[in-house]
Amino acid sequence: MLPILSAKETDLLKRRLLERANTDYTEQEMVVNSVLRDVRETGDSALFSYIERFDGFKANKDNLVVTEEEVEQAFKIIDPSLLEVMEESAANIEEFHNHQRRENWFIEKNGKYLGQLYLPVEYAGVYVPGGKAAYPSSVLMNIIPAKCAGVPNIFVATPALGGNINPVTIAAAKIAGAHKIYKMGGAQAIAAFAYGTESVPRMDKITGPGNIYVALAKKSVYGQVGIDMIAGPSEVLVIADDSANERFIAADFLSQAEHDELAACMLVTVSRSKADAVRTEIMRQAELLPKKDIVLKSLEKYGTIIVAETLDEAVETANRIAPEHLEICTEDPQALLSKIRNAGSIFLGEYSPEPLGDYFAGTNHVLPTNGTARFSSPLNVDDFQKKSSVIYYSREEFEKVYRKVEAFAQAEGLDAHARSAAIRFED
């Protein structure tokens, strides 16, 4: 049975949620470090060896990349109605992310100008989980922001069990705008993207979800290459008042709980009767799900209902937890929007459920988890761009200030810096 807490117990809940990340992965880290070292030192030789070992695919430089024939075959196999949905979703994602594109800017004044250039990274590597399941939505969400940013080389890595990739993954990658798809998975794929091999160019940025080995590999190569984030277990928090529909809230709870046993589902409501109704409905609907066992374990560990005294207290509770997904199911959800400070993605009203953002609306579903929405953002175009500062001073303008530059440098004990400024105006 889901516990019902008061808003004063929010900190206890937050500590419990953060404990989800406190697992000891020493054994997995040793494996990952070995893979990273081998691929860094011996390139293709180690990469192909690990692919054969883990994916049962005898890879070489000639069969590592998905061919045009394989792409054509994938599009023939897939149900046309699914292709249509993926294409429409991709169009929505592209439209949303194109609004994030930035313009270069300059300030010109009296013989000087300063500015900023927005430049895409040259190589972006997107990791896509493989195996029996396919995650085309994740493919779209990672590739399309890179395309909108202007990245000229967008490469996908995904496991090819026995040499075969799920055709839905191939089709989604091509719809999104990927330039190459590599048949490689696991920590070895991250290593190839991070260090480069004879067959795989070195990436500037790596994004995309994966298992614990992929996550640890991304964490280890950060600094050699940029990464999106280290994603934690999924979570949803719903703010509700008496007007909310308990059936809808229960369904949204369970849509997160089915991810895995560490998923966290939370309701903050100002109505004790609504809390009781939602709890009853959650347990009723959970019994109907194919993943009932996972759902019940998730709810038992991290399912929580909090009763707040006011909507302002409910919002403050949400801000302290900083959830990945925040649903506002109140009579006037827009009225609360300006009060939200910390959330990965915000869903307003009962007809904007979290799966709408996962698959179709166009917003990105790669979101900060475990409270990191306090300081980080959903995956976006900025993740695939760099900013370069531009400075120009004429001789006359620099002559007016070079003594100030010289004085500043001398104050920091950097005589060569001071001389660099002064030498331009010596007799």
TrEMBL record:
CDD domains (alphabetical): Histidinol_dh
Pfam families linked: Histidinol_dh
Active site per the UniProt annotation: E324 (proton acceptor), H325 (proton acceptor)
Top-rank taxon: Bacteria
Chain positions recorded as substrate binding sites: S234, Q256, H259, H325, D358, E412, H417
Transmembrane segments: none
EC number(s) per entry: 1.1.1.23
Pathway: Amino-acid biosynthesis; L-histidine biosynthesis; L-histidine from 5-phospho-alpha-D-ribose 1-diphosphate: step 9/9
Class of the enzyme per the UniProt entry, highest EC level: oxidoreductase
Textual note on the cofactor: Binds 1 zinc ion per subunit.
Database matches in SUPFAM superfamilies: ALDH-like (SSF53720)
Cofactor dependence: Zn(2+)
InterPro entries: Ald_DH/histidinol_DH (IPR016161), Histidinol_DH_CS (IPR001692), Histidinol_DH_monofunct (IPR022695), Hstdl_DH (IPR012131)
Binding site for NAD(+): Y127, Q188, N211
Positions that bind Zn(2+): Q256, H259, D358, H417
Keywords, comma-separated and alphabetical: Amino-acid biosynthesis, Histidine biosynthesis, Metal-binding, NAD, Oxidoreductase, Zinc
GO MF terms, alphabetically ordered: histidinol dehydrogenase activity
Reactions accelerated catalytically: L-histidinol + 2 NAD(+) + H2O = L-histidine + 2 NADH + 3 H(+)
Primary role: Catalyzes the sequential NAD-dependent oxidations of L-histidinol to L-histidinaldehyde and then to L-histidine.
Family: Belongs to the histidinol dehydrogenase family.
NCBIfam families listed in its UniProt record: hisD (TIGR00069)
Protein name as annotated: Histidinol dehydrogenase
UniProt source species: Christensenella tenuis
Annotated gene: hisD
